[in-house]
Amino acid sequence: MAGRGAGPDFVESLARGLDVLACFDANHRTMSLSEVATAAGLARPTARRLLLTLEELGFVRSVEGSFQLTPKVLTLGMAYVGALGLWDIAKPHLEELVARTGESSSMAQLDGSDIVYVARVSVPKIIALRVDIGTRFPAAQTSQGKVLLAALSPDELAETLALPSRAGLPPYIGRTADQLRDELTEIRARGWALADEELAPGVRSVATPVRDGTGAVRAAMNVTVHAAETSTEKLLRDHLPLLLRTAGDVSAEWALWQSRPHHEVPQSNQSSA
Fold this sequence. Notes:
Blueprint: H1 12-22, E1 30-32, H2 33-40, H3 44-57, E2 60-63, E3 66-69, H4 74-84, H5 86-101, E4 104-111, E5 114-121, E6 136-138, H6 143-150, H7 154-161, H8 177-190, E7 193-196, E8 203-211, E9 217-226, H9 232-258
Antiparallel strand pairs: 1-3, 2-3, 4-5, 4-9, 5-6, 7-8, 8-9
Helix pairs in contact: 1-2, 2-3, 5-9, 6-8
Pfam families: HTH_IclR, IclR_C
Keywords: DNA-binding, Glycerol metabolism, Transcription, Transcription regulation
Domain HTH iclR-type: 11-71
């Protein structure tokens, strides 16, 4: 993983430390030093120093000779989400949507050719794929990803689709690039996207854009169902109208939040009288 930097200011040690954090996921919650070194493409002594540094900083803990992430890693992602103001705004709307549909709902943003989940309210149903905050999926295989890809210009879309996925899943080969572009054109016109068991068997979802104060698509919101329980017709007839209304409400409140007359100044080092 390391060794990608080309710029004169690239800090290789920082990149390697982030590579170590990225080794851990739902399938690798506890890893040995050797496993981390192999996954990150590092020599064992280098991996050991990085793990011990991350442990001292509180991002990992050692457990019987192996290593685990700590909850502190959430601060890295939540600082980003919090800065956008998205979670505070979206949370009550997502909760209401889930209460009305009885299905899980999430928000995601585009990162390269993948989507990354930034907010989620779920219901305890068996689904083929586990989803947490920070989970990545190839954008072209998901309803949220299609919505976000459809918002890109032709040049941006070509550059994005040329990037390799970092989600660790095989690419979807169900359609050609031209077929995908035609689908994205239709999605852009109608304002929502469907993914019908494209990411995994049994996973069916519909998504719609979430816009910022300028009208630009910055995130996507979805409703996910189990294909054996909910038909495409029911998903589009019953859940899509609620989703469209919810995403519109979140977009409107986000625009108001971004336009608020608020500015923070650094706290003075001098005590006030």
